[in-house]
Each structure stands twice: as structure tokens, then as C-alpha cells.
Amino acid sequence: MVERRPDEAGSRESRFLRTLAGEALTPPPIWLMRQAGRYLPEYRELRARAGGFLDLCYTPKFATEVTLQPIRRFDLDAAILFSDILVVPHALGRDVRFVEGEGPRLDPMTSLADVHRLKEAIDLDFLAPVYETVSRVRAELDPSKALIGFCGAPYTVATYMVGGRGGEEQAPARLLAYREPDTFQALIDRLVDASAAHLLAQLRAGADAVQIFDSWSGDLPPAEFARWSTAPIKAVCERVRAEVPDAPIIAFARGAGAKLADFAAAVPANAFGIATSENLAAARRAVPGHRALQGAVDPIALVAGGAALDRAVDTVLEALGDHPLILNLGHGVRQETPPEHVAQLVARARSR
Ligand code: CP3
């Protein structure tokens, strides 16, 4: 693993890791959620050769190349492993498919018996190609750039496992959580174990930092958010830190809004993701001290480009520029994004 002690921060030290250690840098380090993907012609070309999306994720040669594509094109400060949050249910024995043009499909889980049918522990051998990709990327990446590993938060992954797909405010999972909280808790507990093991395997393979994506918990009322989002993410962080005490962690509870202050008080992450819709001043108050914020340019402003994009970048830099900040989007890059607009975002942020 690369050095990440702030006192040794030299020219080769990653600016991304310095920010996670609590430094406010101008310009801030930049990476974008979903920075690899279908908006890039070189991704579409490789994806067509690999076959399915999961074949791409599980073939280290291809996944390494796709991870590095946006770094070569845009000189971003961090690469994110090319994979998916749904490899965790896959490695717990669930059937996971990606339907062209529609998204992920899993066989819905409806009962405690389904939870008991999951593998006792996540099959890390099954995910060996993912960890090999981490090692390959780290070996090829410039030392000044960081490699981010990731997992989905237990709640978000559970919503796909219970509902079998995304959509409709993840209602099937929420319904199960209200009707059979013990069943839902048993599933969440399995996912806490599996997620921590998956993050640790990525850190051991060479990931410099990890991000936990909770894409759907923002919709939950505060008490449910505390139980199903905050508590499991806190547990994952603690499991990881028990083995790798200085592991840099980014927690992204998308749309936490007014729940962010309690979330940040409980979760021992180095940085917190901020969604597009958040009030930046309020987010800053919610995360006191030297812990970093990550976000929050509107992905649709990135599609628009031009003066609107410049304004969107400037707004984030003006609100958060003197705080430890990782410039990113408030959600992932959209497929219809012109690649030149990503170059524009990077140039704008680095010109100030
Ligand atoms: O950010 C990156 O560039 C790294 C790779 C990454 C992917 N998915 C690749 C991907 C990451 C970090 C994810 C996370 C992920 N996956 C989340 C959390 C973040 C978020 O977006 O809220 C979720 C909810 C998923 C589940 C998932 N995977 C969905 C809902 C879909 C379908 C949506 C779509 O855009 O098709 C995927 C597929 C997926 N994951 C693609 C990519 C590049 C598109 C696959 C393709 O090439 O067809």
C-alpha cells in the first residue's frame, strides 16, 4: 500500500489521500462517480468485446483497462475499481444478471429461509478476479494517483436482493423491513460481514481507500435511516478499521439531507459524500472538524456543459473550497454526457 501519512506528504503523495487525511488543498483533488462507463467510446468498444457487463467485471485484463481509461483521458486524481455493488450478493450465492438497457435483475428474497440459504460467508475465491484487478490497476497507476475500492452499503444492496431490481423507492425492501424487521435485520447482518470482508480484500490487494455507496437510504424516515443505514455502515467501518486501522473510508448516504449530521456523528469515515440536492452550507455544518466532503456537482450540469457547468463547479468550490474537499458529482456520470464536458470540469476546477 502507498504511504498516506500527512506529515510525509511530498510531491509523489496523492493529493486525494492528503485530503482524506484532513488537508484542504487548492485546487481540490477530482474524481467522478461512474467515471468509467458508457459515455466513453473506448468503454463501449471494450464492453462489446467482453460480452456481458459481469464478464467485463470478472475479467482482470478488461476491468483493469476500463478502470484506467478515464484517468488517461482526463488526468483525474483517483481511479475507482471497475466493478459493481451487486458482486457481493453474487458471491453470497444469489443469481445476478444485468439485462441490456434495463439494469440488474436478481431473484427476489422474501423470507428468513431465503436469508438462511445465503452462503455462510462471502466467497472471496469467487471474487478473486476482482482483487486481481485491484492489484493490476495499482501496479499500473502513477503513484501520485489513488485507487478507490468500494462496496454498496448493506441497505442499498439489500433493496436489490429483496426487490430483485431497482425502482419504485425500493418499496419491497422497506415493506419487508416494516413487516418482518427480524428477517430484514438478519439480511443486513449478513451484508455487514460480507461488505467488510470485501472491502478488506480490496485494501489488501492494493486499494488506497474505500467508498461505501448507500444510494437509496436517503428516502428513509429518520428512525429507519438510523437503523438500516447509519448503524450497518458504522459497523462496516469498525470491522474494516479493526484490521486496517488507518484505512481511509468515504461514506456516501445519498440524499441524507438533514440526517447527515447524526450520520456523520456516528460513522467514523474520513469523508462524506454530498448528493446534488444538498444545501452545501448545511452539509459543511453537519460534518465538523477536518473530515472531508465529497461532491456535489449536478450530473445534469455536466451533460449541459458550457457556462452552466462552469457555474456549477464554481458554486461547489466557493461553498467548500477552504474545507477538505474532493470535487466530484452528486451522483454518477450519465450515459448521455459528452466526454469533453468532463475535461471542461477538470480544467475549470484546476484554473482557479
Ligand atoms: O464509478 C465507477 O466508475 C466504478 C464502477 C461502478 C459501477 N457501478 C459500474 C457500472 C460503481 C461504483 C457502481 C456502483 C453501483 N452499482 C451503485 C451505487 C452507485 C449509484 O449509482 O447509485 C448501484 C446502485 C449499482 C447497481 C447498478 N449497476 C445499476 C442500478 C446498474 C444499471 C444502471 C445502468 O446505468 O445501466 C448497474 C450497471 C452498471 N454498473 C454499469 C456500470 C458502468 C452499466 C453497465 C453497462 O455497461 O451496461
What can you see in these coordinates?
The protein is of the alpha/beta class and 352 residues long. It has a single domain (6-351), classed as TIM Barrel, CATH 3.20.20.210. It is 49% helix and 12% strand. The protein is built from 16 helices and nine strands. The chain has helices at residues 15-20, 41-50, 53-57, 60-74, 87-91, 112-116, 128-140, 154-163, 171-179, 181-205, 222-243, 260-266, 280-286, 299-304, 306-320, 339-350; strands at residues 78-80, 96-99, 103-106, 146-152, 209-214, 249-253, 271-273, 292-297, 325-329. The chain has a seven-stranded parallel β-sheet. It has a two-stranded antiparallel sheet with strand order 2-3. Helix 12 links the parallel strand 6 (249-253) and strand 7 (271-273). Helix 4 (60-74) runs parallel beside helix 7 (128-140), helix 8 (154-163) packs across helix 9 (171-179) and helix 15 (306-320) packs across helix 16. The longest helix has 25 residues, at 181-205. It is globular, with a radius of gyration of 19 Å. The chain starts with 14 loop residues before the first helix and ends with a helix. Mean pLDDT is 95; it is low at 1-11. It binds coproporphyrinogen III (CP3). Coproporphyrinogen III is lined by residues 33-38, 47, 53, 80, 82-86, 98, 103-104, 150, 152, 156, 166, 213, 215, 332.
